[in-house]
Write a structure and sequence with these properties.
Number of helices: 16
Largest sheet: 7 strands, antiparallel
Number of strands: 7
CATH topology of the largest domain: Hypothetical protein af1432
CATH architecture of the largest domain: Orthogonal Bundle
Order of helices and strands: HHEEHEHEHEEEHHHHHHHHHHH
CATH superfamily of the largest domain: Hypothetical protein af1432
Distance between the termini: 51 Å
CATH class of the largest domain: Mainly Alpha
Bound molecules: fe (ii) ion
Shape: elongated
Structural class: alpha+beta
Radius of gyration: 24 Å
């Protein structure tokens, strides 16, 4: 490789690495790592596995060829699975030996290799895997976080070629940055989930799986909603990152509501219901000293996730810090009226659909999961009443992805 080309490639990889450090959420980071690596190596497809205890968990995948077979705006549906860290599979071998493996043709791996290619995915999807570059995601302190696998390098004529051996050092460098960023995002996710655990001690319905699903649904609905409106992809990515995490804390205020009310098996009295509704304002108070985009989004979501499009929700126009009613929005009885339509921040309008969808679709202490048809009918009926119609529209158009998310996070 000549010096000029080497410099170009180096600056390309450094730019991709800088981008990774702007992402905070784990799911969004997986997306960004894979698209960055694929862009650099001109790979048609790829996957990321993360190490969980002593197995590799297939976490995320992209595939341009299969993507092109889908309708515009639709996403690939995939299932997650685990494989052992041993020398039998390619990803397992890479994790076990902590070595990069560059394969020219997955169907012509020599017999003397310890690993072999599993063609189950090709058979199911009609895809043909040929060249593969698989490398460990190890932090700069040599901690294995996962495995990155790039599939089918493409030349300019759209023909599959081998991954260049010459360029391996660049991609290895990227993998270290990716692993460092992943380690940090995993830690952030773990802290959020620990906060949820504290709420769960109080309210058994607010589980880690529930909030992970609500976060992932909200990010997906937002992306569909925003791309339809021509919002620039960079802005969509930035907002999605914030929303994915902030929506997990929608019910954080429940930590301040007494067990007597949260766990009451019977219907709440008027006073008890009044107290219960305060979880919105109390939750917002947690983010009182707003200083980042994340705090601001978490504040808006906690405060407004029970507002309704038609103005019949709560807590309405009150100041969460002082409890004072905003005199501009009093109804004829002197009560604050609920916020309505676009007075409710977009993120809260989205989380409200995501939260109700998940609550109805899941088993709760007081009910069995509803069949999907019944859930969707209710959400459609409530479009324009409880929910923002444009959000319901986005929700319905990404329902297959939401279903897929449901199976990714189970209680
Ligand atoms: Fe709530
Ligand atoms: Fe919830």
């Amino acid at each position: 490789m000549d010096l000029q080309r080497e410099n170009e490639r180096l600056s390309q990889i450094l730019n991709l690495e800088v981008e990774l450090f702007q992402v905070k959420d784990l799911d969004i980071l997986l997306e960004r790592i894979l698209s960055g690596a694929r862009l650099f190596a001109k790979a048609d497809a790829g996957s990321i596995y993360t190490k969980e205890k002593d197995v590799l968990h297939f976490k995320y995948t992209q595939n341009d060829t299969l993507q092109r077979r889908l309708e515009f705006g639709k996403k690939l549906i995939y299932s997650t699975f685990s494989i052992p860290i041993n020398t039998r599979s390619i990803a397992g071998y890479v994790a076990f030996k902590s070595k990069i493996v560059n394969i020219e043709d997955a169907y012509k791996i020599s017999q003397d290799r310890l690993y072999s290619f599993d063609n189950k995915f090709d058979k199911l999807s009609g895809y043909t895997t040929k060249s593969m570059l698989t490398l460990p995601l190890e932090t700069s302190r040599n901690k294995l976080i996962g495995v990155l696998q790039l599939i089918n390098a493409m030349d300019d004529n759209h023909e599959v070629i081998s991954f260049s051996h010459e360029e391996e050092p660049f991609i290895k460098h990227f993998a270290i940055s990716a692993a460092n960023a992943l380690e940090r995002a995993q830690m952030t996710r773990a802290i959020l989930l620990r906060m949820i655990k504290m709420i769960e001690l109080h309210d058994p319905n607010e589980t880690g799986a529930h909030v992970n699903r609500v976060g992932a649904y909200a990010a997906e609905i937002y992306e569909t909603w925003a791309l339809k409106r021509g919002i620039a992809p960079d802005e969509v990515n930035r907002q999605k990152d914030v929303l994915r995490m902030a929506s997990m804390l929608h019910d954080i205020g429940k930590i301040a509501i007494t067990d007597r009310i949260l766990k009451k098996p019977a219907k709440l009295s008027d006073e008890e219901y009044f107290e219960m509704k305060l979880h919105t304002v109390l939750g917002a108070k947690v983010f009182e000293d707003t200083w980042s985009d994340f705090d601001e989004a978490a504040y808006e979501i906690a405060l407004n996730h029970h507002e309704k499009w038609d103005g019949k929700g709560y807590p309405g126009h009150i100041n969460p810090f002082t409890g004072e009613k905003d005199p501009r929005f009093l109804d004829h009885c002197g009560h604050t009226r609920g916020k309505q339509e676009e007075e409710i921040p977009l993120f809260a309008r989205i989380v409200s659909v995501a939260d109700v969808y998940d609550a109805l679709s899941s088993k709760r202490s007081y009910k069995d999961p509803w069949p999907e048809e019944k859930v969707l009918n209710l959400i459609k009926e409530d479009s324009g009443k409880h929910f923002d119609p444009t959000v319901v529209e986005a929700f319905l158009s990404c329902i297959d992805v939401l279903r897929n998310i449901y199976h990714r996070y189970t209680d």
